[in-house]
Amino acid sequence: MTSPTHFSFDSLSRGDILPTVELTITHDDVRAYLEATGEPAERWDERVPPVMLSALMLATLLGQVEIPAGVMHTGQEHESRRPVRIGEALTVTVTVSSYAVRRGALMAAFDAAARAGDEVVAVSRASVLVPPPEGSSEGDAA
Fold first, then answer.
1. Could you read off the pLDDT of 78-125 as tens digits, one per residue?
2. Is residue 5 part of a domain?
3. Is residue 139 part of a domain?
């Protein structure tokens, strides 16, 4: 998985689409994932574990955006539209679906879509919160 560009977190805006990343998950990738998670390998000799795909979709975002210190991962959703075969060529596109500052805290959500050709095979959403800087009056309760 290669990432062509890096963005600063504060340069993003709602609606931004990050560059598409090509991704092909190999048998070795799946084996390493299963060893790391302790999940039994028997079920995954031909298919990519959906949670692994979701993690790699999030990694696509992390590979393109400089995440600020103190960021909190507040939510993750994943929907598999169909099983992904090991070795299947995918493209992953990440869109900034929301980006707002409230009381000094930055809240953002990123939608990712994995495609095999023109077919969307999985979608994922990651939500994050960047708290206001420590000592900032914007984060104090009114």
1. 999 999 999 999 999 999 999 999 999 999 999 999 999 999 999 999
2. no
3. no
> Residue type at 36?
A
What residue numbers bound the domain in which 86 lies?
13-133
Q: Say if CB 133 and CB 89 are below 8 A apart.
A: no
Tens digits of per-residue pLDDT, 16-47? 999 999 999 999 999 999 999 999 988 899 99
Domain assignment of residue 3, yes or no:
no
Q: What is the pTM of this model?
A: 0.84
Examine residue 8 and state whether it is found in any structural domain, yes or no.
Answer: no
CATH number of the domain where residue 20 is located: 3.10.129.10
